[in-house]
Amino acid sequence: MHTKTFVAAAVGLGLVTLSACGSSGGKSAADSKTVTLVSHDSWKASKSVIAEFEKSSGYKVRVLTDGDAGQAVNKAILTKDNPQGDVFFGVDNTLLSRALDNGLFQPYEAKGSDRIEAPYRADGAKHRVTPIDTGDICVNYDKKYFADHKLAPPATFDDLVKPQYRNLLVTEDAAASSPGLGFLLGTAARYGDTGWQAYWKKLRANGVKVVSGWEQAYDQEFSGSAGGRKAKGDRPLVVSYASSPPAEVIYAQPRPKTAPTGVAQGTCFRQVEYAGLLANAGNTKGGKAFLDFLVSKRFQEDMPLNMFVYPVLQGARVPAEFTQYGPQAKDPETMAPERIAAHRDQWVKSWTSLAVK
Amino acid sequence: MALPVAFFAVFFAYPVAAIVRRGLRIDGAWRFGRFADVLGDAGIRHVLWFTTWQALASTALTLLIALPGAYVLARLEFPGRQVLRAVVTVPFVLPTVVVGTAFLALLGHGGLLDQLWGVRLDTTVWAILLAHVFFNYAVVVRTVGGLWAQLDPRQEEAARMLGASPLTAWRTVTLPALAPAVAAAALMVFLFTFTSFGVVQILGGPTFSTLEVEIYRQTSEIFDLSTAAVLTLVQFAAVGAILAVHAWTVRRREGALKLVDAALTARRPRGAGQWTLLAGVLATIAVLLLLPLAVLVQRSLTAPGFGYYRALTDPDGGVFPVAPISAVGTSLSYAAAATAIAVVIGSLAAAALTRRDAGRLVRGFDALLMLPLGVSAVTVGFGFLIALDKPPLDLRQSWILVPLAQALVGVPFVVRTMLPVLRAVDARLREAAAVLGASPWRVWREVDLPMVRRALLVAAGFAFAVSLGEFGATVFIARPDNPTLPVAVARLLSRPGDLNYGQAMALSTILMVVCAVALLLLERLRTADRSGEL
After folding, report:
1. Which helix H or strand E contains B28, and what residues bound it?
2. Do strands A269-278 and A87-92 pair parallel, antiparallel, or not at all (unpaired)?
3. Chain B residues in contact with A67 (beta carbon < 8 A)
4. What is the pLDDT of residues B51-105, one digit of tens each?
5. Which range among A124-133, B201-210, B357-366, B515-524 has the greatest average pLDDT?
6. φ, ψ at A69 (rounded to 5°)
7. Which residue among A6, A35, A125, B23 has the highest number of C-beta atoms inside a 10 angstrom radius?
8. CA pair distance A129, A279, nearest whole angstrom
9. Does the beta-carbon distance from A22 to B391 stay under 8 Å?
10. CATH placement of domain A136-270+333-356
11. What distance, in Å, lies between the first and last C-alpha atoms of chain B?
């Protein structure tokens, strides 16, 4: 008897708690005064800039971060009939087709998107997505290693297979890591649909090491990064980003005069990140206002030091640290999202048997 | 019984079923043919084989290394024993992304083994096996040690008096009494290593892959939900089979044991044998458990004047909208909520499972409670998203999902820790109380509770530690303005730059200390609380 009373009380209590949470969590999405951004873990904006948007637009901004870039896109697709928010930011050119083919977004041409640099625009006149930022995946090198060994650092994909760079490069699993995939796509863009496989055979013969993720490659194996120096990493070449050298300067105390690492300019693959208005968004009006904000000069200039990416808006200023320590690649490899979508799985599969097994 | 059933139905069975259904039911028809496709793939079969053998090897190695530790920490009295017992549990709660880094300092280039003998294990399967020992040492020490400390030593002594050799006495008296606890520990270690994710992903590189890693890749990267669903069901079946075998072997052995106060069983080491054992265990703990932890601490201190720690209090540090140090408060409150949920649900389940009139169905539930340990966090996380998305259960953006998901992992610990003790309580005591007119609730409160209070605290400590370090489910629902400690560490590590790396190390050190202190407090509470025990 007593047991039953107790259990009943506990069940009751549980349900009350649940419904309380339910009402505080779910409803706000449809609230017309709140705009909800769904993004990946790397999302970051200055508080003051968000506050300005909130003040001028009258919307309150809520942010949900949903795992890494791939996960965030997959989850958005999974919940597209009943989305968690109004705007999604952070689908890049390697995943864009997956998002578009699954009908993740509804069309909206953001105000000011005509001033976005032409090469970044995708999806033609449909305007389902708006480009927001760009970055380059490039081989970084440890300046000290190459100075000590009186060796010129590699500059191009071709250089990486030369004997003087044997056993120096570490990269990431293309099946599991975004820079790893970017590097593979870079070689595919450079050497063509079939040529890249021959290149990777040579790269493997030249001792490329493949680890699972960026953290292991950059913080552990690479000799030029802050983490790698502590971990006694012994690979002076790593696949990372063009914006990694500025980060090594900005996040060091005291700041060094020059970056400890450099970028091999001829090994870059360009990434573009897009945002879009989610299909079935609860607050379409607010979502549109937020997309306008993402391409505004204020946000575009705030973005680089928060997310370590470059603006896509013409005339947006880039911080001095970027121009000084990590200029954007001049002639990066690029690839259309449709081509990536068509080959991606097959390429990754052949790459795995070529580079790993 | 109703509450635990409802809890698991809503927060586990329903979400998992929803995501599996999404994967296997395409255009209104079930695609069971996918099983043949997926299981026919040579790569997948290789993954299955590797998953199984590495789990078996890891479990054997962990038992081999940790059983002496369980004995020493339970039965030998030496200074610092309590602190050590808390410290060995620390690895269990550390996020794998951090431990992977630290572990390479032991096994990798320029690591201890490299310096001493020129041996590098970082790309071999040994790295995975040893890391599994590192993580699961505490599982054996706590599960087996908890019971060992309470076994009446007089029984073994009596056997010796009657002429049995020390080994025979141990084998015929102590070992059978310990068997359920050893089996329970082995089962947990096997489950953990069978479903190992972070360790394999980080230390195994792209060469080694377990089922869990494959499920994560299919769901999170490739977005092939039907392959993921097949693999989830395969893992489910495998885990279910293991649990069934375990339940069958253990239930026949469990009986009423004579339990005594742990303080009475611990003795100062006597004789060369015990001293050697003590020294051996301490050396193992120092090299295998403390060294990797020390590396983290050392790396967090390389900036002058605790620079990395001071940076943690900066609200504009660059990675989060809040000061990273606030993650400590977030983690503690989530862990407290998760522990409360796990203890309530777990105790109710354990109590229901020990009732004499519990039918076969209820007893089957015992095994079902363990299933969440065998299901990928990514499956549960994605399941939550599509299953709990409508009022009154639209919890997708609620903070409560994090403690709920953590409690799913905590409940099995509570049940596992309490069941052996509850089952060991002599049923005649309960019957006597009932005959004298006590209600079932009063019987539980006055007979069972005083005896299991210790186990309850151990269980709570486990649940707390698990939720503190739990990473899988938290990445799915964490809001950017309140990251938990493991999430904060992972995000700091995912950015280049000395300050970010240093802060990750500092935050890991804080996580270690918070966990050790919490466990130490529990340990104190446990020893101070003698009033109700026999």
Report:
1. none
2. antiparallel
3. 220, 475-476
4. 999 999 999 999 999 999 999 998 888 888 888 888 888 887 777 767 776 777 6
5. A124-133
6. -55, -45
7. A35
8. 12
9. yes
10. 3.40.190.10
11. 28
- Scanning every residue of chain B, which has its alpha carbon at the shortest distance from the alpha carbon of A215? B494
Rounded percentage of chain B residues whose pLDDT exceeds 70: 90
β-pairing, A237-241 with A169-172? Answer: parallel
**CATH topology agreement for domains A29-134+272-324 and A136-270+333-356:** yes
- Sequence letter at residue B37: D
Structural domains of chain B, ranges and CATH numbers in brackets: 2-528 (1.10.3720.10)
Six token digits for residue A302: 């705030």
The third-level CATH classification (topology) of the domain covering A29-134+272-324 is D-Maltodextrin-Binding Protein; domain 2 (3.40.190)
Bridge-partner residues for B264, per DSSP?
none
Domain boundaries, chain A: 29-134+272-324, 136-270+333-356
ipTM over 0.90: no
Instruction: Give the tens place of pLDDT for each residue, A191-243.
Output: 998 899 999 999 999 999 998 889 889 988 999 999 888 888 889 999 999 99
* Burial of residue B124 (number of CB atoms within 10 Å: 0-12, 13-18, 19+): middle
| Cβ distance of A63 and B479 shorter than 8 Å | yes
Inform me whether the C-beta atom of residue A306 falls under 8 Å from chain B C-beta atoms. yes
Residue A247 and residue B206: Cβ atoms within 8 Å? no
**Which is higher by pLDDT, B319 or B178?**
B178
State how far the Cα of B217 lies from the Cα of B429, in Å rounded to an integer: 53
Q: What is the pLDDT of residue A42?
A: 86
Backbone angles phi, psi at B393, to 5 degrees: -115, 40
